[in-house]
Amino acid sequence: MKTLTSLTAIAGFVSLAASGALAQDAPAQTLFTNVHIFDGISEERIENANVLVEGNLIKTVSTDGIDAPDAKLVDGGGRTLMPGLIDSHTHIYATGVFQTFAGMQAAKWDQIGAAATENAADYLYDGYTTIRDTGGMGSGLRELIDRGVVEGPRIYTAGAVIGPTSGHGDWRNPTQRTYDYEADELGKRLNLSYIADGPDEIRKASRLNFAHGASFLKLMAGGGVSSELDPLWSVAYSVDEIAAAVEAASFFDTYVTVHAYTDETVNIALDAGVKSLEHGQMVSEETVKRIADEGIFWALNVAGLDPQLLNHPNYAMPTVKPKLESYLDGSKNLADYIKKHKPKVVHNVDTVLSTIGFGRSHRDFEKYFFSQMFGNHAMLVSATSTGGELAQLTGKRNPYPGKLGVIEEGAYADILIVDGNPLDDLLVLGANPKWFDAAPRDRGFETIRVIMKDGVFYKNTLE
Ligand SMILES: [Zn+2]
Q1: Would you list the domain boundaries of the chain?
Q2: Euclidean distance between CA atoms 158 and 376, whole angstroms
């Protein structure tokens, strides 16, 4: 069923083929007929259309017939053709196999790699063709996926999170006085977290991340919920500290995002030139307006506004639960501010140290809850074209320099065909009103009939 038609996917083989014969063949074509297109942007589908894929790109989108006699034909049967999904904040290496970061420290490297590979495949077969990893390791898994060695989505990675002493990325025991990067397993061996204080150390950490293959940088700009050394209201970095990372990122033609929840931390980060925000649920209406006005991309984990979060095992510790309660109280009016000012929200699930099964439930519930708050169309746009726009912020650093998250001529051929119309009914993409009490499910959805990434079929039940 799986055919290697993509230029990127065959690149590895081309370099091995001494004759170079493969490179001279015309790129393979696939013609999808009889589909209604959700293009990643519009509220209405393009009815009764056809899409021609050539190599790894979308070549033609038309409501007229497309002449492509050599193309592989796929009759969509009146279903919806849409872009593959994008999760703009996850942690592909931090899987539930290890339960805690201490568990990751104790794990063997091949266990971490194997578990991350399984996690990546799970994303792809659930319909995610791109993910953005906002903290964890380097570009190793991405490179093997891109060479076609293992299966998974496209990956944009931040590498290690960069945070200060006693910040959200400082997972030391509170009695540990010294920090030695050379001796630190999370920092040096696993490249999960880098403790950096002051502009010079932040520059070094930023550049080290680029050496490890980061596409962008993530700084911990304020306190977090699940960690113990950083009060939720605390400020982690000054403007000049964040600006040092922004400059280092600009030298690599890319951007900085921040973990931040409060007005003070978000505004410091925006003053420093940050272009994207992770979390941010506790900000005021004025700050939501600023985020919208400045075109900042916002990886808002919408399910995080649901008080059901109190059932999350990551927040069960007595030191953490009060933080979660103050967070839920501080975020209770956010949905209204977002509906009013319409910032660029990107769909994300932020699974961290979750089992594969809980990751699925979390993804399914996030789709449902987002659509309940802001509507099906807003959810779909956030998971396709807005995520694709955020991907482009990586500039010359972009591992995939074409367009993602849209069905249009010249964009990457990352395509789903689904039963029904997701604009009316998100159940066809697996949205589920149950979260912690969701029944376990297998990988993938019967209603997703075709999964194509970079012109390659990973699933096709329409033959
Ligand atoms: Zn996260």
Answers
A1: 7-83+408-460, 85-397
A2: 29
